[in-house]
Amino acid sequence: MEVRSIYKTARVSPKKARDVAREIQGLPVSAALDALTYTPRKAAFLIGKTLKSAIANAENNHDLAADTLVVKEANVSDGPTFRRFKPRARGSASAIRKRTSHILVVLTDEIAIEEKPERKKAAKRSKPKAKAEPKEEEAAAEVEEAVEEASVEETPAAEETPAEEPAAEAEAESAEEEENKDA
Question: How confident is the model over 148-166, as a mean pLDDT?
Fold first, then answer.
């Protein structure tokens, strides 16, 4: 079952809040709360409030245990923007946009918790050497194809030149006739 909580018109820029929201997606609720508690950002505090509200909704309204919940979605969208103006030189003013966000947290108990596999550093170092060899073979194949295409293109070009010469002669003759008429 999905449980959601929305915090509307939060006074934080959506761009700044999205960085924090991406970090908790797919985490169990306890790990997400820990991550938000130790993240030194204003957005982390606001998203933490929304997450706690979603947990309370799940426990009180849907009789779900908080231990089984996982953050399915943490979405931050643009809210209304407050426009303020600051006086500038020569009597002008520049706009200041105070952006707000709508924070949506969706929890579910249906997703199995997946642990991320650890990376192997030794495997990455050996892969670039293996990739270099196929590139050389591909480059050789491309050169051969280019040579074949060049030889194929030369033969039709030789056949077309005699056909073009009479057309060029006819144009030259018509140009001479026009000059004679003008004179």
Answer: 56
